[in-house]
Amino acid sequence: MDPLSLAASIAGFISLGIEITKIISDYTASVNHAEEESQELETELSALVGSLQALERFLKDHEDSTRPFRESAVLVNATLSCDSFLDHLKTTLGKFMEARRKKGWCRKLTWPLKKGRHTQTISTIQRFTQVFSLSITVDGCKLLAKTAEEVAILNQGQLSSSQAMEEITVLVKDLRLIDQQLLGKTTVVEQTQKGHEQERLLEWLSSSDLSIKHNAAIKMREPGTGLWFLESEDFCNWVSSPGFLWLYGIPGCGKTVLCSTIIEAVREICLTSDERKLAYFYFDFQEIESQDEGVLLGSLLRQLCAGEAAIPKPVQDLYTRNHPSGYQPSTEELESTLFAIIGSLEKEVYIILDALDELPEKHDSTKRREVLRRIDRMVSRRFANLHILTTSRDVMDIREKLASLCGQAISIQSSHVDADIAKYVRTCLKEDRFVRLPDYIKALIEAKLAEQADGMFRWAFCQIETLRECDTIGEIKRTLDTLPKTLDETYERILADMFKQSAEKAWAILVWLLFSARPLTLEELAEAAVARPDTIPVDPDDRLIESTEILRICRSLITVSKDDTDYYGMDCEEFSLVHFAHFSVKEYLVSERSKLFCASAETAHEFIASSCIRILLHLDFSDVNFDVSEASSQWDLFHDLLHKYPLFGYAAEHWTTHSVQIKNNIVFRGRILDDLLRLFDRGSSCFLNWLRVYDPGMSPPWFFCTEATQTVASPLFYASRLGLHEVAERLLQSGADVNELSKGYGTPLHGASKYGCCETVKILLRHGANVDAVARLYGGETKSALEVAAGGCHEDVVRLLLRANAHKPADQCRFWRYSLALQATLRPWWADDGLDRIVEVLIKHGADVNARDRGGDTTLAIASYRGSVRAVRLLLNNGADLNAPGGKEYCSALDAAVRGRSLNVFKLLLARGANPHMTGGRYGSILQSAISLRPEDYEMSPRDLLAGLGAVYDDEEDHDEEENHDEEFTLHILSQIIDLGVDVNIHGGGSHSEGPALEMASERGYEDMVRLLVARGADVNLESSTGSPLPVAAAAGRHQIVQILLDHGADVNAQITRYGTALQAAAEFAKYSIVQLLLTHGADVNSQVHRRQGMPPKYGSALQAASGNDHVDVVKLLIDSGADVNARNDDYGTALEVATRRGHRDVVQLLLQSGATHSRDALGSAPAKDHLETV
């Protein structure tokens, strides 16, 4: 690049700098007390612009005496980096000023560059100013015309560097860091384009689409409402300073709409700066999924990770640990990962949670209590960057928990909401039929509603809907004179009108909405409105003319939303789902306050169950061809069936949900039992039709079975699996085979045992069920009924099955089954109730505590991984071998405790004499297993750890609470494992070994672990079959770790089997900054790597590796650093040949420009596709 071209580029940077300075100047002029940071930034930018103007003049004045600049010259790179930096800064400040201009409440927002970002920005500007100031002398310009590597070499070659030379060397290093930071910003788009794997990971974290609920709330918002809060000091302080805010209000005051307004405001704030991150969640009384704390945590994690340049490592580790095995993470794992993300994000994090009061509060539900506990833990962590806001009613249990946490609890006052209600009413009066009303009537409506609303948006909405139906002025006046005073009275009037017009349909609709197992579609609910057990199948003439008629019947009590839920296992077109319009509607209907509507849970479930069973009994598929394989054909078939039987899908899947609620009721023993016996008649078509639609014996259940009747399980199996003991009894009395074995399903005893159906198990045993029968179940494992019962932690069923065998003589095979049942008990993380009691009873009945599972791991190891101190103690006290060799997963029980992050078990095993030196298992040793866990899992104090790992340990102390697996290990456990005498360089040869501990930590990027291991004597040059620390760190792009290893003596030119040299590894995977780092530490740019016997072909040099993978920037860097462009390798030939063979045109062109010789082999290597272009 010639000096004049560079000067022209700099002129553009000057204009950009002046533009940014003006933005800042406008801000400081419009704010009375502008932040000092903005004024400091304006000063430094002015200095930078001045240095650029001076450099522009210098280059023009010395055009003749200044040589052209290479593209890789320090000065050229500095100007390009400065351009990117200024452009990014302009975007950030521009968004901020635009938000302030458009939104009045945004004017109170603070300067978008937080302290850390501000300091970094000022430092970067000062570095650029220094570089450009140094370049306005002839000597300085000549020096900065060199590459960064040449500057470093020149500095090292001088016996005593001048102060100016030292300053320039430091500046060059700083510019490299700035380049790396800017590169991180510019590659976000590329990563987004290539982020299919990231999207899959985010989808695994959470599939909830919160935008549906949010957009629905936003749609209900009247423009201009909610400003009373957005313009308040409370909101401004919460946005500016970390803390917790709780907004509470009466039912119907518009909390959710206000919350959506706050979310939109915070979203706009986040758009003004990339230093802010928003995550929100709506709890909903009608959506069971939204009441799950795991769904909440997963959703928050997904939102915080979305849009980041890379998925944060704690989330990657969570995915790696669970997804390959098909597991979903526990809530403890999710919480720990969420805390790790919040703590590691160098951003302000805003979390907004709406409607805590819509979580169940019944005595048999802990959902609200658990979520409140999570909020407590989150707030108690006192994250320096976390802003939490929640909304709810002012109810006792929420107030007791939140009042002590929040800096301030804010009541949504009626006076504030009434003004918003008035805006809403005025807007309504400008729409629909209200437009034609006389002005004095409009004024009367507005005055009456505003006067009596008392802060209840919901009340005002219902009155507007009632007024909308009035046909005369007189009717409007009478309605206004008799307005209900409360929401309860409002709902009572609506119910009175509903029952007056269509009592039976109205009652049925409300019953189905209140007690259905899932939200119903508009078409399903329309069918339910007219379906009665005695009138099924429904006469087509009796159906509603339009399914939307139910909206007319129920008026403002219900609402419809669109959903693209994956119904019945197929991607479907959007369904219209029906919900209660507001939480207060359902609350009123199920309360004793409702005078007109009454339906007990028992009555409702009996009504729905009976209707569903009758629907199944009358399904007629005689003219249906189920033999379809294409998904589109399946959906066409399903759509046709839905048109004929709108409720058949729901009935097939959920009739059991309602039946089990009343199976001990006298009604069940009458008509419903008779209907079920007809359904469970193996010779009838309805049994097969049901299973063709939905098979509860499969895992997961599936639709559109095309198999013949004999390939599905027997009716007795399904009755047993569903816990319908009276149906099972009748089937057995009718001659059903109690021990019939169904392929993939097992016997009826398997079905009943797996799901803990105790009464059914008793009946089956009484009729001679074979307790010892084994079956190959779906999933491939052969199990007994005892194993499946133990795996579900069904203690009563386990005892029944053991008791059934008590009179039989001892049998080695039976004891083996008991041992397998013992292992099955210890495996599931989700089951704990009765765990130790089941373990104890199985041991008493002869289960072998030293038995091994199918992978060779011991029962003790399985219990240790699970983290159950009581189960481990029981096994040890009954003779379990503490140091038995491990199997496929664990080298020992101690290794399993490490893998399971179970500190209490780890301490117990050490106190009992566990050997820490054993090898084998997945990773090879306990040290390598500890490395396999992410550092964020380690959060225990050194004092507790030392106390636990010492000789003093209370072996008899009972730890009743399940351990928090993600919070009770620390990084110090590595040090303690080494203190136990474990060889820091051990390579145990595990089945999935990733090399010795230092190699594993280097590749995974665990910087603190690497420092610890090196300090404790790990060999930085140790080569294993999988590599050595420096090359694997280089290949993985671990810049800081590469630096640590080099600082501790890693051989920069060592060759290993897996990658060759570290330089070749970095070049192959396009780790530009690491290539630079290795070159400055003496890496041989022309080092040749030769294939070892039995190994796959290798690139001969770093240049060939970069050329073969189309890494143009790396190729250019290597050439500039002296790489021989014509070096040849036996496997790939020259760099030009490998680039030509793979069609990398830009690399070929660069190599030719750099002197590469094009031989016949190179020309012949070009691929057929684009051959001429490549040549």
Automatic annotation (TrEMBL):
Residue span(s) of domain GPI inositol-deacylase winged helix: 503-593
Domain Nephrocystin 3-like N-terminal: 224-393
The protein's name: Zinc finger, ZZ-type
PANTHER family assigned: AMELOGENIN (PTHR10039), GPI INOSITOL-DEACYLASE (PTHR10039:SF16)
Keywords: ANK repeat, Coiled coil, Repeat
Keyword match Kinase: no
Keyword Kinase: no
Coiled coil regions, renumbered to chain: 24-51
Signal sequence extent: none
InterPro entries: Ankyrin_rpt, Ankyrin_rpt-contain_sf, GPIID_WHD, NPHP3-like_N, P-loop_NTPase
SUPFAM superfamilies noted in UniProt: Ankyrin repeat, P-loop containing nucleoside triphosphate hydrolases
Domain of life: Eukaryota
Source organism (scientific name): Pleurostoma richardsiae
Per-repeat ranges for ANK: 711-743, 747-776, 855-887, 993-1025, 1025-1057, 1058-1090, 1098-1130, 1131-1156
